[in-house]
Amino acid sequence: MKTKIQLLETTVKAANEVIRLNENLDINYKKIGGIAILSSIGKGHLLRSFTIAGAEVFPKNFEVEFLQSSSHVTPNERFFSLSEIADGKKVEVEYIDSGNATAYPYSLKIYMLLTND
Q: What architecture does CATH give domain 3-115?
C-alpha cells in the first residue's frame, strides 16, 4: 500500500481568528484514508466547513477535538478514518479558533493520510 501524509499548515495569529485553507490533494493518490490534528493547539476549536471538491466531509461547526490526537496514541491509530476520493481534488477548510489556545500565534497543522487503496 502506497501512502503519503499531506499537510495543510498555517499560522493562527490571534484568538477567535477565522482561517481559510485551500489546497489540491496530490494527484498521485486515490483516497484520503484519514485525518488528524494534534492536541497541542488547545480545545474548543471548530471546523466551520471541510469540503473535498465542494462536497461536505464534516457537518458545519464540527468540533476539532474529534480529530485531535496526542502522543499517548500509537502512531498507526492517530488518524480519524475516512474513505474519500483524493485524485487531485480541492480541499477547502474554514477553521474557527476558540480563543483557548495555550499561546498565540500557533501553527495549525491538518494531516491527511493519502493512499492508493
A: Sandwich (2.60)
Specify the pTM: 0.89
pLDDT digits (tens, 9 = 90+) for 58-69: 999 999 988 887
Radius of gyration of the chain measured on its C-alpha atoms: 14
CA atoms within 13 A on the CB side of 15: 9
Q: Tell me how far apart the alpha carbons of residues 99 and 90 are, in angstroms, rounded to a whole number.
A: 28
Question: Quick one: CA dihedral 12, 16, 20, 21, positive or negative?
Answer: positive
CA 43 to chain centroid, in Å, comes to: 15
- Cis ω for the linkage preceding 59 (within 30 of 0): no
